Amino acid sequence: MSLKCHRSKSVWAALGVLVLCWLYIFPAYRMPSDKEIVEEVLRQGQTWSKNQTGIDLYRKLLTECCDPKKMFAVTKENSPIGKTLWYDGEFYHYHTVTNETYPFFVQDTPLQLPLKKCSVVGNGGVLKNSGCGKDIDQADFVMRCNLPPLSKKYTDDVGTRTQLVTANPSIIEKSFQNLLWSRKAFVESMKAYGSSYIYMPAFSMKPGTEPSLRAYHTLADTASNQTVLFANPDFLKNVGRFWKSRGVHGKRLSTGLFLVSLALGLCEEVTAYGFWPFSVGLDERPVSHHYYDNILPSSGFHAMPEEFLQLWHLHKSGTLRLRVGRGEGGGGG
C-alpha cells in the first residue's frame, strides 16, 4: 500500500514539474481587452511607411503555404474531372468533380497578376462618416465582403468600384430564398457590383453548394457581365492554418481576413478599410457593427479582436496599410 502511495506521489510530482516547465517554455497568452487595443492604436498612431521587405516576405509565406496565384479559385487546371474537393468547413464531406460541375469552373486564374494597388473593404461601422470612398476607389483593384450595400447614401464612405466581391451562400438563402422562386431581385442587386468577379465558397459547407450553383446559373441565364469564381477549399483550409499558427483561434476566419490574405498574395500594395471590431471608435464614440446596420454576429464563431491585432501588426511593420480613421481624399478610413 505504501509503495503504491509513494509511486502515486512521484507521478504527480513529475506531472507538476512537467506543467511548470511547459508554462515556462510556453507562457499563457492573455488576449488584450478591447479597451487596451484601442488605447494602443491611439498611442502608436496611424502613421505608415511602406516596407517592401515585409511585403515580399508575406507574399513568399503565403505562396509557400497556400499558393493564392494558382489556388484561390477552383479552376479546370487545378480541379480536373474526378478530383475530390474536400469541404474545408465540414469534416468527412467532399465533392467529386463531374462532367456536370466541371463546366462551372474557369479555365485558369483569370486575374492579370500581379495586381498593383488593392483596396480590401470590410463592412465595419468605422466606415460610417469616414469619407474613405474616394481613397478606396483610387485603387487598381477593389475587393469587398459579402455583397454589401453600395447605394448612393454610402458612396462617400465606401466608394463605388468593385472588381471582386464575396457572396456567402447564407446570403443567397436569407435574402433571396435560395433562388428557388424568383431570381429578379438577385439579378438587380448584383448590378451594383458592375463587371466584377463574384467569389463564392461553394465547397466550404455542403448546404452551400446548391445555392452557389444556382447563383452561377442565374447570372449565366441573364447574360450577366459578371464571372462567378468558386473559392478553392484547399486554399481556404490552408489560409486558416496559416493564421491559426499565428494566434488566430476562432472556429473560422472572417471573410475579411481571407480577402486580406488573398490580397497580400496577389497585390503589390494593400490597404484595408472597415476592419474595426470594437464598439467604440478612436474618438470614443459608439461604432455600429456594420456601416449599414448594427446586427451582431454569433459569438465565438470568429475571433475578430485577434484578427485585428494581426492586421495592426502588419500595418505597423509596413506590410499593409490599415485605415481606421478619417479618409484623406474626402476629408474623412
From TrEMBL:
Report the top EC class in one word.
Answer: transferase
| Keyword terms | Disulfide bond, Glycoprotein, Glycosyltransferase, Golgi apparatus, Lipid metabolism, Membrane, Signal-anchor, Sphingolipid metabolism, Transferase, Transmembrane, Transmembrane helix
The record lists the catalysed reaction(s) as:
a ganglioside GM3 (d18:1(4E)) + CMP-N-acetyl-beta-neuraminate = a ganglioside GD3 (d18:1(4E)) + CMP + H(+); a ganglioside GT1b (d18:1(4E)) + CMP-N-acetyl-beta-neuraminate = a ganglioside GQ1b (d18:1(4E)) + CMP + H(+); an N-acetyl-alpha-neuraminyl-(2->3)-beta-D-galactosyl derivative + CMP-N-acetyl-beta-neuraminate = an N-acetyl-alpha-neuraminyl-(2->8)-N-acetyl-alpha-neuraminyl-(2->3)-beta-D-galactosyl derivative + CMP + H(+); a ganglioside GD3 (d18:1(4E)) + CMP-N-acetyl-beta-neuraminate = a ganglioside GT3 (d18:1(4E)) + CMP + H(+)
Superkingdom, natural source: Eukaryota
Presence of keyword Membrane: yes
Which InterPro entries is this protein grouped with? Answer: Glyco_trans_29, Glycosyltr_29_Sialyltrsf, GT29-like_sf, Sialyl_trans
> What is a single molecular function from GO for this protein?
alpha-N-acetylneuraminate alpha-2,8-sialyltransferase activity
**In Gene Ontology terms, what is a biological process of this protein?**
sphingolipid metabolic process
Q: Where are the transmembrane segments?
A: 12-29
Q: Where in the cell is it found?
A: Golgi apparatus membrane
* A GO CC term assigned to this protein in UniProt: Golgi membrane
The membrane topology term of the UniProt record is: Single-pass type II membrane protein
- Which Pfam families does the record cross-reference, listed alphabetically? Glyco_transf_29
For this chain, the annotated S-S bridges are C118-C267
* Pathway listed: Lipid metabolism; sphingolipid metabolism; Protein modification; protein glycosylation; Sphingolipid metabolism
EC code(s) of this entry: 2.4.3.8
The similarity annotation says: Belongs to the glycosyltransferase 29 family.
Protein name, UniProt field: Alpha-N-acetylneuraminide alpha-2,8-sialyltransferase
